[in-house]
Specification:
UDP-N-acetylmuramoyl-L-alanine:D-glutamate ligase; single chain; 296 residues; 26% strand; 13 strands
Length: 296
């Protein structure tokens, strides 16, 4: 099957700093790198690196050809990425010595995609495919409705959190993933806890405490402990987790098994600097934390 991802494509400008800036503070960075990012691009790369067939639906500006090429190098089908006369999206990211980060987003072309481009992409989808989206593009609700009408399963990462966008998409989805802060924001906005939502599967990521899966069909809740690592950069860790979960489900894995694999992918990813370019492939994830059988 195929995962169709309506998602952002950004240039990530990553500044290494001693600590996250406080209001009014000026701080010299110790390093600067630029690479591929955006929640959408990160998730597409993660899906591809996890072995899924992934078609990215999105847009870049006149200067964004390098990002499209990079996605292709990682195995993402780029035929539905439009070149628009709008600057590409970009992010200014500061990463502190303890791995924590802060991010400023410029949406650019990510929020200028025409609905015709989404229709053209999903015209090639098949019943049973997955559709995935986040809150860094336009037309999420319209695209989710179209995907649902066509018999696709719909996944949604409710980030960056926006109450109006989430309210529009919630009735259309089968799978919801969000972090602990976003879950609290969602409950405040809707008055409904994750385990009471009319969504089949809800995953709340808990950072160093792991993840929690709400199976709302059965009413059960399962916790998954985090894998202890020393973080270098947490940028894109949640996106990596999401992509690996969706790729696992697309391959027919039970949810618990898909989450377990995604936990390992996210843990390995945060030991490396960068976003999309740091996402491990399936072989690396499967080998992570396994005993070295060549020894002894």
């Amino acid at each position: 099957m195929t995962i169709w991802n309506l998602g952002s494509i950004n240039a990530d400008h990553v500044y290494a700093v001693d600590h996250i800036l406080a209001p009014g503070e000026t701080l010299a960075a110790t390093d600067l790198t630029t690479g591929l990012g955006g929640k959408g691009a990160n998730m597409s790369v993660a899906c591809a690196r996890a072995g899924a067939r992934i078609g990215h639906i999105g847009a870049v500006g006149p200067e964004g050809g390098w990002a499209v090429d990079r996605l292709t190098e990682y195995g993402v089908d780029n035929r539905w990425i439009k070149r628009l006369d709008v600057p590409s999206g970009h992010a200014i990211i500061t990463v502190a010595e303890d791995g924590e980060n802060s991010i400023i987003l410029f949406p650019g072309a990510n929020r200028a995609l025409p609905i015709e481009a989404i229709r053209a992409a999903l015209a090639e989808a098949e019943v049973g495919d997955w559709f995935l989206t986040q809150n860094e593009t336009n037309l999420q609700a319209e695209a989710a409705a179209l995907a649902r009408e066509m018999g696709l399963k719909v996944g949604y990462a409710a980030a960056p959190f926006d109450a109006q966008s989430v309210a529009a998409v919630l009735p259309l989805i089968d799978f919801l993933i969000l972090n602990e802060v976003e879950a609290a924001q969602l409950e405040a906005a809707t008055g409904t806890a994750p385990g009471a939502l009319e969504v089949n599967d809800v995953i709340v990521t808990l950072g160093a405490d792991g993840a929690r899966w709400f199976d709302n069909r059965s009413g059960t809740v399962e916790d998954f402990p985090a894998i202890p690592v020393t973080p270098v950069d947490t940028t894109g860790a949640g996106d990596t987790f999401t992509g690996y979960v969706l790729a696992g489900l697309d391959r027919g894995m039970p949810m618990g098994q898909a989450i377990g694999l995604a936990m390992r992918a996210g843990a390995l990813m945060v030991t490396r600097p960068g976003a999309a370019d740091a996402i491990p492939d399936l072989a690396e994830v499967q080998a992570f934390l396994q005993p070295d059988r060549s020894q002894g």
